[in-house]
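Record pair follows.
FIRST:
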Amino acid sequence: MRTPARGEERIGSDAVVELVTRAYWMELETAANYLAASVNLDGVRAAEVAEALADDVAEEFEHARRLARRLSELGGIVPGSLSFTPEQHSLQPLADQTDVVRVIEGVLEAEEAAIDGYRDLIEQCDGIDWVTQDLAIELLGDEEAHRRRFQGYLREYRP
């Protein structure tokens, strides 16, 4: 995070800036992994899940863009790729490109992590930073909708 210039006030607490930065990276990593899975999934049964993942890529990038803008507004620096540490092991490409269930499980794990992260951010901002809190609440709703859709896909594969 950068130090504010003279006459410039940083409005975000270190904890809020850290959580927004973490959410930013999670969204970018999710977008990259959804893109890979949407292209790599193969088979007739995989088509609908691959299409849903492809559609979600744009939304995840939009989340990252909004978080980046908010991070800048808070006086933080939007980090570049050298600051990135991947964490989504369950969403890595599979040797069996027809294993739709494993991809769905990876998506659900990523969505749960995002939901937990946004809940932490909402709590950290409560009564302190309503703008970031409102953004986190909106993005939480999107992530919950993603989770619900992929829970439905999983039920189709595991009645």
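SECOND:
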Amino acid sequence: MKTVIITGASRGIGRYCANYLQATGYRVIGIARHADPEAAFEIRVGDVSDYESVSRAFHDIRRDRSVFALINAAGIASMNLLLTTPPETIKRIVETNLLGTIYTSQLAAPALIRRGVGRIINFSTIAVAIGLQGESVYVASKAGVEGFSRSFSREMAPHGVTVNVIAPGPVQTDLIAKVAPEKIQAVVDRQIIRRMAVAEDVLRVVLMLLAPESNMLSGQVFHIGGA
């Protein structure tokens, strides 16, 4: 059985992917900040922005040869102009989105290297490609994820592990639930395909990247909606 580790598995895209993959034969280990007895998959409690916390969640994973993939779906955003963004919010966004992705990639890498084949799928946003106004800190954190993934893909290629990024446009999840509809529409209008995505659109790209036939795809950013 192949094990897939998914961060941000308590809600949104992470939860959707976790439920689907668990139901279709994968063993899913979700990393979330809180326990969830109703989850259909195993949950490890850990905060990706805190290295010691997330390291405890990975404590027995490094030598597990069943680990095939890491999906970094944990992420937060804050729709604020930089001049009105509190320093603690800046810190939290960067630590969760960028450092969290780096920490979990480092912790999962030994297991993937031991297996000799694997996938790391990180998440960015179409906001990076379009330079979305009012999201400069969020964009900076996700641009870091893209740069990190391109570089890390070269480190992992000799071990048969691919590293790619999915960068969706707006998807109807909790992440954008409080954003004004006109702001969401302004982003959609700048996409090539001018409609909001649904979680299934993201899942299709996840499944493509997990497939054996995708073993020559690495260091790439896949924009859902088109940029």
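COMMENT: The beta strands are 3-7, 27-32, 42-45, 67-72, 118-123, 161-168, 221-224.
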